[in-house]
Each structure stands twice: as C-alpha cells, then as structure tokens.
Known about the structure:
The complex is a heterodimer. By secondary structure, chain A is mostly helical. Chain A has one domain. Chain A has 10 helices and 2 strands. Chain A has a two-stranded antiparallel sheet. In chain A, a hairpin with a 5-residue loop joins strand 1 and strand 2. Chain A starts with a helix and ends with a helix. By secondary structure, chain B is an alpha/beta fold. Chain B has 2 domains: about 210 residues, P-loop containing nucleotide triphosphate hydrolases (Rossmann fold); about 60 residues, Alpha-Beta Plaits, CATH 3.30.70. Helices cover about 35% and strands about 25% of the residues of chain B. In chain B, the strands form 3 sheets. Chain B has a 6-stranded mixed β-sheet with strand order 5-6-7-3-8-9, sandwiched between helices. In chain B, strands 11-12-10-13 form a 4-stranded antiparallel β-sheet, covered by helices on one side. In chain B, strand 11 and strand 12 form a beta hairpin. In chain B, helix 8 crosses helix 11. The two termini of chain B are about 40 Å apart. At the A-B interface, helix 1 and helix 4 of A face helix 2 and helix 3 of B.
Amino acid sequence: MVTLVLPRLLDVSGASRRSGSVVERNVAALKSVYWLLLVSGFVEPLLYLLSIGVGVGALVGDLTLPGGELVTYAAFVAPAMLASSAMTGALAETTFNFFGKMKYMKLYDGVIATPVRPFEIALGELAWAMLRGSAYSAAFLAVMVLMDLTTVARALVAFPAAVLVGFAFGALGMMLSTFMRSWQDFDLMGSAQFTLFLFSGTFVPAEAYPSLLRWVVEVTPLYRAVHLIRGISVGTAGWSWLPDVLYLLVVLTLGLLVASRRMGRLLYK
Amino acid sequence: MTRAQPLIQARGLVKRFGDFTAVDGIDVEVRSGEAFGFLGPNGAGKSSTMRMVGCISPPSGGELRILGMDPVRDGPAIRARLGVCPQLDNLDPELTVRENLTTYARYFGIPRRTARARAAELLDFVQLSERADSKVEPLSGGMKRRLTIARALVNEPEIVLLDEPTTGLDPQARHLVWERLFRLKQQGVTLVLTTHYMDEAEQLCDRLVVMDGGRIVAEGSPRALIERHSTREVVELRFAAESQEAFAGKLDGLGERVEVLPDRILLYVADGDAAVAEVGALGLTPANVLVRRSSLEDVFLHLTGRTLVD
C-alpha cells in the first residue's frame, strides 16, 4: 500500500512544485508596465457599475428578483460586474498572454526540456492568472461593501465564489487558446466574450427573455457565474448555488485537461 | 546501472511526420564520457533524433533507452538529468540574462540559493557576467548561444545535447564555444552534438555518425572515417583554362579517385607530392597546386554528395 501510494503522493508534491516554478517565472517577468494593465482591468467594471448600475439605475428604479426580494438596480448589476471582471481578468491572462508565450515567445519549448510537464505548465499559468483575477475581485468587493451594495459577511463568501469563476474561465480560455491559429481568432473570442457580458443576466434578469433564449442564456458559463455571485451578494442563495458551483468545477476540470492535452500534442512534436 | 551500459541506446529508431520519414531506423550507442556527433546535411534527421533523445518528441518506432529509462514513460526523470541546447535559442525574452538561468534552475526544483550561486558560476564560465542584468534581446547571437549553453548546464546534467551549437556564430564566438565544450568534456560530461561543420566534428567528437536522408551512412572516429572513406592526402589542381574537364581525362588512373569541380580537380591519393610529380611527368602545368591532408569534409561530401539539400 505504502509503495503504491507514496510515489503518487510524492508526484503530487513534485507536480505542484513544478507548477509553482511556472508561477515564479511570471513573478520574475513582472514589470512596471504590467501594473497599468492590472489597474485597467479593475477600473473597467467599476465604470460600468457607476455608469449603468448607478446612472441607468436612477431611471430604472428598484427591481424585484424571482425570489421576491426588492433590490436597487446597482445592487443587481454589481455582482454581475464582479463575475465579468473575474472572467475578463482570467481570460486576459490565459488567452492573449498564454498564446503569445506558447506560439510567439516559444517559452514552453524551453520549459518542456526540463522535468516540467504540459499539465504543470497549464496549472501554473492558471494559478498565475488567478492571482490577477482574485486581486480584481477583492478590490471590487471592497467597493461594493463601501457603496452599501452588499454586506461584509456576504462579500467574504462571494470572494471564493469569484475566485472559482476566474479559475473556470481561465481554464476555458487556455483550452480555447490551444486551438487558436493566429491573433485574428482572438477577435472572434472577444466578440463571444462581449456577447456573454451583455446577455448573461448582467443588466437584465434572464427571466425577461423569451423562454427559448432564456434556456440558451442559462447554460452559458457567465450566466452561471452571475447567478452564483448575485445569489450570495443579495442573500438569496439557498441551495441554488450548488449547480452553479458544480457547473464551474466541470468547466475548470475539462478546460484544464483539454488544454494540457492539446499543449502536449503541440509541444511534443 | 553498470558503467559499461550505454547512456543512450537506440535500435531501429524511427520518426515520422505524417508521410515524411525524418529518421529512418537508426542504431546509435553513446557511452559515458564521450563526445558523440551527428553529422549530416540539412534535413538529414539530426534534429529529429536530438529531440527524441531529449524526450520532447515521442519516437514513431524502434527502441530508445536513455540513462537506462524509457523516454516516453520516464520523460521527466530523464530530462532532470539532461541539458539541452536547442538549434534555435528559446531564451525567455521577458527575463534578464541572470534570471534566465535562475528561473530555469527552478524548473528543475533547484533551491533558490543554489540556483543563484550556480547562475553566477555559469555566467562566469560562458563569459557573460558583465551582462548578467541585461535583457536577452540586445545580446549578440554568440552571447545568446553561450547563455543557452549555460542554461543547459544549470542542472549539472550527465548528458548535454547540443543541436548545432555554433551555427551562425562568428569565428571568435565559435572558438569560445568549442573551448567551453572541450572543458565540459574534460570534466567527464557526455556531449552529444549535431553539426554540419566538419572542423567542429573533428575538434570535438570522439565518435560520430554521418546521417543522410534519415539513415546512418557511416560511423566511427573522425580519423577512422577519413581512413575508411577517403585517402590520406588530397591534391587540388587548378588549370588556367576555362574548363577543367579537358584535363581530367589525362589524369585518369592517378590516385584512387579523381573528382572534377567547376574550378578545380581533386586527386584523392596516398602520397600528394608523388602525385604532383606524376602530373608534371604527364606534361601538365596547372596554374595552382595544393597538397593537403584529407579532412572529414572530404568524407562528408563523398558520402552525402555535393548536391545542395534544403
């Protein structure tokens, strides 16, 4: 038993150590310009919150949620902005940056000559992407609490949920990047991302859509993410968060596995 | 593992890319402490072989054992003990020269402190200490090459794989690289390199194989290959007339082989001076005569032909 389990345990610690070395590389490469990028990723959802949540919200008035709760429009929009910023932050890192590193910088061609395996590269890059995504989420939650859009306790629960959202989208983005042929393909992805951003129950409750469209919207990942975080931040979660969490975990696992498999095929020529 | 067991052992090794067979069933054995060369024109299958040995390209057929292990199953364990200097530098452009070494060391799980010490040592070894904090981009080709070699040594590998280590370098840079590789060899590191420079193979390799079209066409030490596939000396004759062909006929039977090139005639002979005397006795007066020892280049061109391959 020991001889069977021990090597596997050692391997897990070895794998996480090697993934860690991939994160370390990104820390070493972190330069001052990057901080500007980080700031822009935080400011964008904040601008949406202020312009649409607060601005348009003044015209829209309060909203009644399916559960019967009455919330301000800003409180309705804010969790959706949090979910989308977690998505955007993770995607930026695992699509543009990851693709550039793999295809143009040929960074991983050097890494695969070491004991580090494609799965460990994928995991390391994803963990790194999440450091960025989580920073956005934490800052945004702080703003929500300050604007009285949620409570501190709910914000503390919403944080890990936002991190999970980031992980799932990060893995998804990484998987898509391994299928990208050139930068042009990213335009398509950008459009898809914006469509998700507009129609995932972000600005309008999905219940307002015709039933067929509503079904389509409800299976998209950003809708599940918004549903999860909104449930937590306005306090209507109940057990309805469970399918959302499971959904995101499946996306995360699938994305990571497909990404590392594809990387193996692209790199081990 | 016993000492006698080869570090690298390939039997009938094959690499296919779709319909194209890059490596077509080669047998190779590399022993501990030797410098082994793969020589061949472009497209001979040298790099594909190196990638398979480096465990970053799964073989399509045949048998391959490295350090007694299977490259597909034990890839990470083997790679931990290899140093790889690929044909195209893939240094990390976002890091400094020093960070390229320390970061790479971390991929091998080398502790930070050790990594820093080793980076300093290696930068000294490849004479890049002064550029330690520079970015990679502004470095010259020779410097990048040296940095890539230093990076390949960061895990104190037992085998160092060098794919065309000096291609594109100026003579000074080449000689510096050769000298460093020679020192590694003296330290007992096993070197495996590919090259199409004959002088490089003659300088560095104890043993080599000549590859052409994915197959091994000759094998042995540089000296043995010259003895087997060429003559001791070569006489180069240049005639003033436009066509060398006119004279070639008269030289038939002189030496082992006569080769006519557009600008000169090569006589492959055992004794160069004697051959020159015979040419004089035939009443021929070449504008220029050169007697030289046969080189690996003669072997190479004889075995793989003079036609340009790309």
